[in-house]
Write a structure and sequence with these properties.
The structure is a single chain. The chain is an alpha+beta fold and about 180 residues long. It has 3 helices and 11 strands; from the N terminus they run H-E-E-H-H-E-E-E-E-E-E-E-E-E. A 6-stranded antiparallel beta sheet has the order 5-6-10-9-8-7, with no helix packed on it. It has a 3-stranded antiparallel beta sheet with strand order 4-3-11, with no helix packed on it. The protein has a two-stranded antiparallel sheet with strand order 1-2. The chain is globular, with a radius of gyration of 27 Å. About 10% of the residues have low confidence.
């Protein structure tokens, strides 16, 4: 009889410990969810940088963009057009500096990553940082390409291809008219 009581007592103690452990796991999972929710997240109105800074996105109507941009800038940046090769001001620029979005001024590319691709458009092997450009699938004109957009204003910049040099193997082929240049 004593061994049955010991077995029952052992069973109850074991069951209690298991339940206590499960309750602790649930509490930890809830705390992790709450902690994660407290971390600021990027949303449709802001870009969140890796440093935790936020950059307000630029949203304007078509009429506002048309009033601010030249006809060619509007065609490329807002209507996803492409300028003719070898016609832009920056395709052969060899000066040191930063290339910014012609629509909103966000820094996009560095002269340190620019290379001569022979295509007639400014080409870079990587953006200035991980949050300045957005990439989107482009299936227009019977091709499958990756479109490059300014992450701040949504302006069309060009396309990225996987035929670039080291270290990335990428070629960001960007319309000159979608960029401004700030010399060092």
């Amino acid at each position: 009889m004593l061994s049955i009581k010991k077995s029952i007592l052992l069973f109850l103690v074991s069951f209690s410990l298991i339940q206590c452990n499960n309750a602790q796991k649930e509490t930890m999972a809830t705390e992790a969810t709450v902690s994660h929710a407290a971390i600021p997240q990027a949303n449709k109105d802001y870009i969140l940088t890796p440093e935790g800074d936020s950059i307000k996105k630029v949203v304007k109507s078509a009429a506002e963009w048309k009033a601010e941009l030249s006809d060619m800038e509007y065609y490329v940046l807002r209507e996803k057009g492409t300028e003719r090769a070898f016609t832009g001001d920056l395709w052969d620029n060899k000066k040191e500096g930063t290339y910014t979005c012609a629509a909103c001024g966000l820094p996009l590319f560095s002269s340190d990553t620019k290379f001569k691709s022979g295509t007639g458009w400014p080409s870079f092997y990587q953006p200035l940082n991980s949050y300045c450009v957005e990439e989107d699938s482009d299936n227009t004109h019977g091709m499958v390409r990756t479109e490059v957009l300014c992450n701040r204003c949504g302006g069309h910049l060009g396309h990225v291809f996987d035929d670039g040099p080291n270290p990335t193997g990428l070629r960001y082929c960007i319309n000159s008219v979608s960029l401004n240049f700030e010399e060092k």
